[in-house]
Amino acid sequence: MSTESDRELTLTRIIEAPPAKLFRCWTEPELLKQWFTPPPFKTIHAEVDLRPGGSSLIVMQGPDGGKIECPGIYLEVIPNEKLVFTDAYLSAWEPSAKPFMTAILTFDDLGDRTKYTARVLHWTAEDRKAHEEMGFHQGWGVATDQLAELAAKL
Amino acid sequence: MSTESDRELTLTRIIEAPPAKLFRCWTEPELLKQWFTPPPFKTIHAEVDLRPGGSSLIVMQGPDGGKIECPGIYLEVIPNEKLVFTDAYLSAWEPSAKPFMTAILTFDDLGDRTKYTARVLHWTAEDRKAHEEMGFHQGWGVATDQLAELAAKL
């Protein structure tokens, strides 16, 4: 039984690293670049203006050399606890070409471990379905494995 | 010559009241209800959770008694200087049925007067056009007259 609404995709994991290390991996560009993309894609550039309304820019590169720019902004930043961002704005408060998703990440402290939850909310059920068919579970799953591995080494 | 982009509607006024009074009119429900709606519409209810991510709810009533609910959230709150809100979310961070607009209000202090600017940004040129055809300039114009009149009396 799913508790997801028809506009939401969710990933939950227990990760063997404390919240502070996972938060660092999400917010320090040099760390973000190491785990964010499932191979053969790479993250070649990351900008993090970590404050509500601050811009985020991630540039990925495919195996053919093609670049994919993912601009967005942060909406809510609670260090080591919560991070919310969306692609609905390019900067504060310039609307993007297409508001597609809002991600709500929570990092629940379980001592040396973290209950990590990524809720990805879409504006339409069609966009949720498209995101799922683009390989959300596989892509975020592999990326989260890489995140857990990196955080455990910090 | 207009500096508006094809997704933006703008209203600018010099108002004979200081920024703090205009800000109060925008953020205190009992004041908001007095000026927000051009007759014969009325604003019969207003909720203001004045913080980034806080919800806003305005309920208007038409001459036939029909109610129009306008939910949204605040994105940026700088007392007496700036107020940003959008209908893209119903609460932090639940996507609305349709992200239509983001309003950026600025209150520039000119002494006893204020340069008041309302920039209304849409996600599409079609939505901007629809908003203009719904009577944006007339509606916001009359409401702003009412705002100026109320603020001058505070």
From TrEMBL, chains A, B:
SUPFAM superfamilies xrefs: Bet v1-like
Signal peptide: none
CDD domains according to UniProt: SRPBCC_CalC_Aha1-like_3
Domain Activator of Hsp90 ATPase homologue 1/2-like C-terminal: from-to ranges: 17-151
Protein family according to the UniProt entry: Belongs to the AHA1 family.
Name of the protein: SRPBCC family protein
Organism: Luteolibacter pohnpeiensis
